[in-house]
């Protein structure tokens, strides 16, 4: 409902189930953007260091555990 009391028709009948169905029809890349947005809305009690680690994994910046323990990885100097 808009501030003046009118509606946009279609949108005043949207439900979570309908939104999920719309998301399923999107291309994979667009679905990823939605997931990233939803994650940004999640509770802020997730430490930034954990979020940074998840970005590293997503970007493919992972190493063998022995290398991580005993050597400096290039992107963390």
Brief summary of the model shown:
The chain is mainly α and 77 residues long. The chain has 4 helices and no strands.
Description:
With 77 residues, this protein is mainly α. The chain is 53% helix and 0% strand. The chain contains four helices and no strands. The longest helix has 14 residues, at 28-41. The chain is elongated and about 65 Å long. The N and C termini lie far apart (52 Å).
Our estimate of the beta-strand percent is under 5%
Strand element count:
0
Distance between the termini: 52 Å
Oligomer: single chain
Cα-atom radius of gyration: 20 Å
Average pLDDT across residues? 78
Bin the helical content.
40-55%
SSE run: HHHH
Quickly count the helices.
Answer: 4
Largest sheet: none
The dominant shape is elongated
Unreliable stretches (pLDDT < 50, length at least 5) are none
Structural class by helix and strand composition = mainly alpha
Task: Write out key terms for the chains shown.
single chain; about 80 residues; mainly alpha; about 55% helix; about 0% strand; elongated
Could you give the topology of this structure?
Layout: H1 16-25, H2 28-41, H3 48-58, H4 65-70
